[in-house]
Amino acid sequence: MDATTQNARKLAAARAALRFVVPDAILGVGSGSTVNALISLLRTSELNIRGAVAASETSAAALRLAGIAVLDLNEIDSLPVYIDGADEVDADLCMIKGGGAALTREKILAHAATQFVCIVDESKCVTRLGAFALPLEVLPMAVALTLRSIERLGGTAQIRADVITDNGNRIIDARGLDFSNPSALESDLNQWPGVLCNGVFARRRADILVCAGASGIVVTGREAAQP
Ligand code: 5RP
């Protein structure tokens, strides 16, 4: 798929997700180019939202530019909807996320939200997770330990060059891990000291998937029929 087609599909997925936005409420906003398309639509849409919580400093800046108030998650007591992209998503709506290094805040917002709407172009839809390298956000002092732990599992890993996360940490991209049970892999990686977050989103997966492809928009998942 060429970049123009892919960008058009990202925009189409973002547009189709607007029906899940709850008017006059706070919206959870993820990070990445598909989310940037969503933010541009929010700027011009008639939809009135009270404000947003953002998964990255980049998204927060884009929201402010769009005239949308950005709140701290600690200031709100409920988050009806969170909308975010993904690097891979399977038929059970489990995902790999973190290609943009925002996985920790993304996972926090996903867990805080009542409904998680994932927006992707169809190149992200896979039968089995794991072709995309799995991002881990790692505290600086645990980088070498984590690299060794991944190798002990039979995987390979790379420190993402020149990337420091919004939380001041490093990203390690891991390949060759066993994705036959994504929730089990996520739980195992959650036990690793120094790994702040791993990019498997299976324990709290998406509720709704909005996928834009050659044949248009396909919406799947729990409560997909209702906004
Ligand atoms: C950022 C993410 C993004 O959701 C993911 O990388 C998809 O990005 P894009 O919409 O640019 O393809 O997890 O950490």
Question: Can I get a quick summary?
Answer:
The protein has 227 residues and is of the alpha/beta class. It has helices at 3-17, 33-44, 57-65, 103-112, 143-152, 182-190; strands at 26-29, 51-54, 79-84, 88-89, 95-96, 113-121, 134-138, 156-159, 170-175, 195-198, 200-201, 208-213, 216-221.
Task: Itemize the secondary structure elements and their pairings.
Layout: H1 3-17, E1 26-29, H2 33-44, E2 51-54, H3 57-65, E3 79-84, E4 88-89, E5 95-96, H4 103-112, E6 113-121, E7 134-138, H5 143-152, E8 156-159, E9 170-175, H6 182-190, E10 195-198, E11 200-201, E12 208-213, E13 216-221
Parallel strand pairs: 1-2, 1-3, 3-6, 6-12
Antiparallel strand pairs: 4-5, 5-11, 7-9, 7-10, 8-9, 12-13
The structure holds ribulose-5-phosphate.
